[in-house]
Write a structure and sequence with these properties.
The complex is a heterodimer of chains A (about 575) and B (about 425).
Chain A: E1 5-12, E2 15-20, E3 28-34, E4 37-47, E5 50-55, E6 67-74, E7 76-79, E8 87-88, H1 95-102, E9 121-125, E10 132-133, E11 138-144, E12 147-152, E13 161-166, E14 170-172, E15 179-182, E16 188-191, E17 195-198, E18 208-210, H2 221-226, E19 234-238, H3 245-255, E20 260-266, H4 270-279, E21 296-301, H5 307-325, E22 330-336, H6 338-351, H7 365-373, E23 377-380, E24 386-395, H8 405-411, E25 416-417, H9 422-426, E26 439-440, H10 448-471, H11 478-495, H12 509-524, H13 532-550, H14 557-573
Helix pairs in contact in A: 5-6, 7-8, 10-11, 11-12, 11-13, 13-14
Chain B: E1 4-5, E2 8-12, E3 15-19, E4 28-33, E5 36-46, E6 49-54, E7 66-69, E8 75-77, E9 86-87, E10 104-106, E11 123-124, H1 129-132, E12 137-138, E13 142-147, H2 153-163, E14 168-176, H3 178-190, E15 197-203, H4 208-227, E16 231-237, H5 239-252, E17 257-259, E18 262-263, H6 266-274, E19 278-279, E20 285-293, H7 302-310, E21 313-318, E22 321-322, E23 328-329, H8 332-335, H9 343-365, H10 372-389, H11 397-411, H12 421-427
The structure holds adenosine-5'-diphosphate and magnesium ion.
């Protein structure tokens, strides 16, 4: 390793300039020495013999001519068994362990191992001596909670390798050698269960990328039925503050039908992450019967934590997601909020005095956002199995106006758009996804002709509602008025979902198919009412009974009873065909 | 030995530049001219060029001013003796009490490790139905009052502070009108709360840099009390003045503004203050109630907008009432499930009906015929505005919930409220 030292020539907020006289590279990590502590920093620009570095810590007390030690390594994370259940900061420091060491506050310059070094893992070899393997192929497995964790040929190994030796089944720590590989030049490489990967680079040890077409059930009706997400797809949730972005992501992180969830709490409230990290260990994952934490990794770089590591945190998250995808798992990455990450870029760009683009965001904002979402996707691995990374990012547009650089750049690259509306959240119509504005390019779990019929009815109902504001109820025909009521009904019993009711908060795909089918029959029924008041009263009653239905477990006998009751209610007001 | 320099190269706004060696980033210096002296802080190092932000402003600083570096960053004294006292933004006494110099603590310290936070769980009762029922305030919450100039936000702040059961009240005044400062002081005094309060006051006529320091000084002090196990309530008024002070300084430093002149790090700067609100695992708590005045009554203005993304909700004060729409307590669900079984139902139902009422009012103003349903809504809305929204109403939560049922039953048939059958059976008033 080349160990080069440099000297600080300027300090401005979290940015330092450093003069060096031997080679350094972009994105290389260096440490600013401050007495006993070392402050981690990353090279983000090089001009002549000066490197501009963003420091991942408070720069208080740094001086001109202070020493910076370059490491020769790019900003990287540790990959290996033991990542699941962890709570990391943006640089992969384990926060609970930091708390044990430092107490209440995040002391600067303290860096701990991301993976526990003492834990022994039960390794079972799957490769044999003499096998030829390439990067990403499996040498053996260890059980990690509910998963079979694959120990793989490091992703940065180019070309073909022959297995020289491999350990028999046994217990090993992540730093013990479990195999030796010989490259084409005959050089022997020791392999442990731990490998490092530079966060800014995607992991590409697979054979091909596929089109995302299999629905990923989130158990939120309006999403799965109307604006679905696919395994390996990407989607965004823009919305003004308080519209429900975070609650929606929290629900998804609990209920989504995926193997692993990586939560990137990026530059927003610490309190929201605390809810997750205190509650997940107590909640059972219905798929496995184990605690939800066992399928979760939390990357937590909240708003008051250093801005530079906020920028890294989304890359740390997507790199860990990529690692588990290599094991043939479906991984969901939820980032809240990508706007904070974009703002971190903006702060850095401002300190570098780069020419600003729109709203002072850097000119390269779009390509950086596109590059991030490109790291999602479903792939065929070298053993023929598939793995996926689905990425969902919230966007926090200034003033709640979607016509701003981060929302616009994101909309260009994602496959589904769940736009939250202030009007809906003010009216407590949760989740406040706007049914008329949102879209998805992925296939739904329900029959598309039906969902299109329902969308058209919603649109028509809204138009009639608007018209009624101008011409009044008396100026509206009873036929139109019924369409309006049907739209409102669909909205209140199906689009809206109670996040705090144990049953309603998660609606399985099977249940959605049945309920939606039933409701579509109601929407298509040719109803007949004496006048508008009778019609309104009927729909009030129908809505209330349907909401009661939503709160009943599908397995209970009452569920079928209420369904029959609803069908009878509708039959009584409908003309027979 | 601390070095002393005598040559100031540039003076602009509140920032001066000198050439100096071995200076630490963030270090404090004392700048003395013929006209007096002020503390200053290092905000940029570039080779030998040092930029300093002068707390009392650079007005009157001479090119031959004496600049003496102190080798440490800004600190404030901390002890029980702070209680009942009034200070400036740089922690100099504003009252006639003695200067405190012991047990100095750093300000603007590191953030709390999220793993050491706990989920907030205690409701703060205010006796205001719009808060207690609809947007419950919770210990350790950070919550601003959004209001345009002229609304009685400081009165609301003072009323909540006096009604809340907390151990220590810290008031951080930023750009406060002198009258408002006296109002707070007298109100706390009259209600016997001054002895558990500390005030850090920057008034509109004080130097702008001190405005920036008020929140840091207030919160550093609050943190110490909280670490001793105290429940601390911090009142910050007005955070828009804080943001404007930041804007002023950023412009003098020739930083590229991001939105309407505010610096690109406005969000991070506000967040690092508000995030000091905390419920410590095994110690006390800090609750922050702030005022964010809205220039032009515009929520999309950068200051309220960024604030809304940081805080755990907001109380929207308009025409002397807390507006149900736009107001939000994000922590309410942590506590409103354990108050009374009907709390959430009343909260949801009354707001949904109130939203329908607003639509009806709009229809009515356009001259449409009112249906039976509209008339019911009109009656309901009026009672809601007078008996729930009016800020003079002062009743405990349970009384307010009972009142809610009474109003609903007076105005609607049970079925029209959309309330679930089992709750209706239990709570709907029998006639
Ligand atoms: N699905 C929901 N059901 C009920 N309440 C909700 C829902 N989504 C949001 N809310 C309410 O809105 C508040 C703000 O939601 P949050 O997700 O934090 O907004 P954002 O992240 O968009 O700022 C929550 O604290 C909660 O009171
Ligand atoms: Mg949020």
């Amino acid at each position: 390793m080349n160990k080069v030292n440099g000297k600080i020539t300027s300090v401005n907020g979290n940015m330092i300039s450093v003069r060096f006289d031997e080679a350094v590279s972009l994105n290389e990590v260096g440490y600013a020495i401050l007495g006993e502590v070392k402050l981690m920093a990353e090279v983000i620009r090089i001009r002549g013999t000066e490197a501009d570095m963003q420091v991942f810590e408070d720069t208080k007390d740094l001086t001109i001519d202070g020493i910076v030690e370059f490491t020769g390594e790019l900003l990287s994370v540790e990959l290996g068994p033991g990542l699941l259940t962890q709570i990391y900061d943006g640089l992969q420091n384990p926060l609970p362990q930091l708390a044990e060491k430092c107490g209440f506050f995040l002391e600067r310059g303290v860096y701990l191992d991301a993976l526990p070094r003492e834990t022994k893992w039960a390794f079972t070899p799957t490769a044999k001596v003499g096998d030829t393997l390439t990067a990403g192929e499996t040498l053996g497995t260890v059980p990690e909670g509910i998963f079979e964790h694959r120990v793989m040929v490091p992703f940065n190994f180019d070309g073909r390798y022959t297995v020289e030796s491999i350990s028999a089944a046994g217990e090993f720590t992540v730093s013990e050698v479990i195999a030796q590989l010989k490259d084409s030049d005959g050089k022997i490489h020791d392999i442990t269960m731990l490998q490092r990967w530079p966060v800014k680079l995607p992991i590409t040890a697979y054979t091909e990328r596929l089109r995302p077409t299999t629905p990923m059930t989130t158990k939120t009706r309006i999403i799965d039925t109307f604006f679905p997400v696919a395994l390996g797809g990407t989607y965004c949730i823009p919305g003004p503050f308080g519209a429900g972005k975070t609650v929606l992501q929290q629900l998804t992180s609990r209920y989504a039908d995926v193997d692993i969830v990586i939560i990137a709490a990026c530059g927003e409230r610490a309190g929201e992450v605390v809810e997750t990290l205190r509650e997940f260990p107590e909640l059972t994952d219905p798929r496995t019967g184990k605690s939800l934490m066992e399928r979760t990794v939390i990357i937590c770089n909240t708003s008051s934590m250093p801005v530079a590591s906020r920028e890294s945190s989304v890359y740390t998250a997507v790199t860990i997601a990529g690692y588990y995808r290599q094991m043939g798992l479906n991984v969901l990455l939820l980032a809240d909020s990508t706007s904070r990450w974009a703002q971190a870029l903006r702060e850095t760009s401002g300190r570098l005095e780069e020419i600003p683009g729109e709203e002072a965001f850097p000119a390269y904002l779009e390509s950086v956002i596109a590059g991030f979402y490109e790291r999602g996707g479903i792939v065929t691995l070298k053993d023929g199995t598939t793995g996926s990374i689905t990425i969902g990012g919230t966007v926090s547009p200034a003033g709640g106006n979607f016509d701003e650089p981060v929302t616009q750049a994101t909309l260009k690259v994602v496959g589904a758009f769940h736009g939250l509306s202030r009007a809906r959240s003010d009216a407590r119509r949760y989740p406040a996804i706007d049914p008329l504005d949102s879209w998805s390019k992925y296939p739904s779990i329900v029959d598309e002709t039906q969902s299109n019929m329902a969308k058209a009815l919603l649109r028509r109902g809204t138009e009639i509602g608007q018209m009624m504001k101008v011409v009044g109820e008396e100026g509206t025909s009873i036929e139109d008025f019924i369409i309006y009521l049907k739209g409102e009904y669909l909205d209140s019993v199906y689009l809206q979902q109670n996040a705090f009711n144990d049953v309603d908060s998660a609606c399985s795909a099977e249940r959605q198919q049945e309920v939606f089918g039933t409701i579509c029959d109601f929407l298509e029924a040719d109803m007949n009412f004496a006048d508008k008041t009778v019609a309104r009263t009927f729909f009030h009653k129908l809505a209330q009974t349907t909401k009661d239905w939503n709160f009943i477990e599908m397995e209970s006998p009452e569920y079928k009873q209420v369904m029959t009751k609803l069908e009878t209610m509708v039959a009584e007001v409908s003309n027979n065909e | 030995m601390n070095k002393v320099y005598h040559q100031v190269d540039n003076i602009a706004g509140s920032v001066i530049n000198i050439r100096a060696k071995d200076v630490k980033y963030g270090e404090l210096a004392e700048v003395t001219s013929r006209n007096g002296s002020s503390l200053a802080q290092v905000i940029r190092l570039d080779g030998e060029e040092v930029s300093l932000q002068v707390f009392e402003g650079a007005r009157g600083v001479a090119t031959d001013a004496k600049v003496k570096f102190m080798g440490r960053a800004m600190q404030v004294p901390f002890s029980e003796d702070l209680l009942g006292r009034i200070f400036t933004g740089s922690a100099v006494p504003r009252d006639k009490g003695p200067k405190l110099e012991e047990n100095m603590i750093d300000i603007g310290g590191p953030s709390v490790n999220p793993a050491k936070r706990i989920i907030p769980k205690n409701m703060i009762r205010t006796g205001i139905p719009m808060i207690d029922i609809f947007n419950t305030l919770v210990e350790s919450q950070k919550l601003p009052i959004f209001a345009r100039a002229g609304e009685p936000y400081n009165q609301l702040l003072a009323r909540i502070a006096l009604q809340a059961e907390v151990d220590v009240i810290i008031l951080g005044g930023m750009g406060l009108k002198h009258d408002d400062y006296l109002y707070f002081r007298d109100t706390l005094e009259e209600n016997g709360a001054l002895s558990r309060s500390v005030m850090f006051i920057h008034t509109a006529s004080d130097p702008v840099v001190e405005c920036l320091m008020v929140s840091d000084v207030s919160l550093a002090t609050a943190e110490q009390f909280a670490l001793e196990g105290k429940r601390v309530l911090v009142l910050l008024t007005d955070m828009t003045n804080f943001a404007d002070a930041m804007k002023e300084i950023a412009i003098t430093m020739e930083q590229i503004p991001s939105n309407r002149g505010y610096p690109g790090d406005l969000y991070s700067q506000l967040a690092s203050r508000y995030e000091k609100a905390v419920d410590f695992d095994t110690a006390g708590s800090i609750t922050i109630l702030a005022v964010t005045s809205m220039p032009g009554d515009d929520v999309t203005h950068p200051v309220p907008d960024n604030t809304g993304y940081i805080t755990e909700g907001q109380f929207y004060l308009r025409d002397g009432r807390i507006e149900p729409f736009g107001s939000l307590s994000r922590l309410k669900q942590q506590v409103n499930g354990d108050t009374r079984e009907d709390h959430r139902t009343i909260m949801d139902t009354m707001i949904q009906l109130f939203s329908s009422y607003r639509e009806t009012v709009e229809k009515k103003s356009m001259g449409f015929r009112m249906s039976d349903w509209d008339n019911k809504l009109l009656k309901y809305g009026e009672r809601f505005e007078n008996e729930m929204m009016d800020l003079s109403v002062n009743i405990p939560l349970e009384g307010a919930l009972d009142l809610g049922w009474e109003i609903l039953a007076d105005c609607f048939d049970a079925i029209e409220t959309g309330i679930n059958s089992d709750i209706l059976d239990k709570f709907w008033p029998k006639k």
